From TrEMBL:
Name of the featured protein: Cytidyltransferase-related domain protein
Domain called Cytidyltransferase-like: residue spans: 7-147
Highest rank taxon of the organism: Bacteria
InterPro entries recorded: Cyt_trans-like (IPR004821), NAD_biosynth-regulator (IPR052735), NAD_NadR (IPR016429), NadR/Ttd14_AAA_dom (IPR038727), P-loop_NTPase (IPR027417), Rossmann-like_a/b/a_fold (IPR014729)
Organism from which the protein derives: Sebaldella termitidis (strain ATCC 33386 / NCTC 11300)
Annotated ranges, domain NadR/Ttd14 AAA: 167-329
GO MF: nicotinamide-nucleotide adenylyltransferase activity; nucleotide binding; ribosylnicotinamide kinase activity
Cytoplasm found in the keyword field: no
Keywords, ordered alphabetically: Nucleotide-binding
Binding locations of NAD(+): H15, R41, S110, G111, E112
Length: 344
């Protein structure tokens, strides 16, 4: 029978120092069990650092994603909510650990020399092995990441980065410059962007003519838009820019079909963005072969409908308005983004 080693940690969040630690530990044993400790106290810790709650499922998903192709590494979870917080509760913790890992434990790995006395007292039959206690491989900690994930972006595994990505969405009515500004901003921040899918849908499914759109098409557009958004977030660099979201899709549904789609409502309720940029339609209307609402009357009608929807979904107070010529719009957008996310 082979030897079994154990790693214990909160991984709040998982960083490359942890990955290096797991990799090296796994070379020293036949089976490595990574125990993800979590408790009801974790949410408060995240709030204190001003970051979103990192749930145990987030951490398990990250670790499973990274190590799914390494068969001798197992990931398990241990709920510490019922015992005193570290550094107290060691005795109670060992009891929970033995329930989580009922197998015979031969080694326990850590990077903390101070843990040695605790392990010798409470797990005398287990050998405590130190792995890179000086952190020469990756000089980073979970505390540093929580304080500023963007300053320490290089230490976040690719699978973790989307969790911290700031999402900026650009909205507006027809021919307001959203697409061009979205591309410019993505280039300025060296990151990804999600294009507006509705235009492609019209070309792919409607022969390039918006008049062929039907009521059932808008939910398809909204759903695929979310897929494009998720893909852009997956490849982002701290921030991502999104050209259009579900409220704008609902806007076009109401504008062209005369009614809203309750299925799109459900998407709107679940979407979340860190910053909303609303582009006024005060630039010259451009006929690109698809657009058809170029008169002042039509543009004002569209503006009114979108404003009503933003009020309905409680977004009106969140949007940052951008107007002026194209250069002024770019300057204003950059100013707003840098003001909102000064550490990116």
């Amino acid at each position: 029978m082979g030897k079994t080693g154990v790693i214990i940690g909160k991984f709040l969040p998982l960083h490359l120092g942890h990955v290096n630690f797991i990799n090296r530990s796994s070379t020293k044993t036949d089976k490595l069990i990574v125990v993800v400790c979590h408790s009801s106290r974790d949410k408060k810790m995240c709030e204190e650092y001003g970051i979103p709650e990192i749930t145990v499922k987030d951490r398990l998903r990250w670790l499973h994603t990274i190590y799914q192709d390494i068969p001798h590494i197992e990931i398990r979870s241990l709920d510490e909510s019922s015992i005193p917080a570290y550094p107290d509760g060691w005795k109670e913790f060992v009891g929970l650990l033995k329930k989580t890992v009922p197998e015979k434990i031969d080694f326990v790995y850590s990077g903390e020399p101070s843990y040695d006395s605790f392990f010798k007292e409470l797990l005398p039959e287990v050998e405590h092995i130190l792995i890179d206690p000086e952190r020469t491989g990756y000089n980073i900690s979970g505390t540093q990441i929580r304080k500023n994930p963007y300053k320490n972006w290089e230490y976040l595994p690719a699978v973790v980065r989307p969790f911290f990505c700031k999402k900026v969405v650009l909205i507006g009515t027809e021919s307001c410059g959203k697409t061009t500004l979205t591309k410019f901003l993505a280039k300025a921040f060296n990151t990804s962007w999600a294009e507006e899918y509705g235009r492609n849908y019209v070309y792919e499914e409607c022969g390039g003519n918006e008049d062929n759109l039907e009521y059932g098409d808008y939910i398809k557009i909204a759903m695929h838009q979310k897929k494009l958004e998720a893909e852009a977030v997956r490849h982002s660099n701290k921030i991502v820019f999104i050209d259009t979201e579900a409220i704008v899709t609902q806007f076009y549904c109401k504008l062209y079909e005369g009614k809203e789609d309750p299925a799109i409502d459900e998407i709107i309720k679940r979407q979340n963005y860190d910053l909303w940029l609303y582009l006024e339609n005060d630039v010259k209307w451009v006929d690109d072969g698809l657009r058809k609402n170029g008169s002042d009357k039509e543009r004002n009608k569209g503006k009114k409908i979108l404003a009503e929807l933003l009020e309905k979904y409680n977004i009106a107070d969140k949007v940052k308005m951008i107007s002026g010529n194209y250069e002024e719009r770019l300057d204003k957008a950059l100013e707003i983004i840098k003001g909102e996310f000064y550490d990116i």
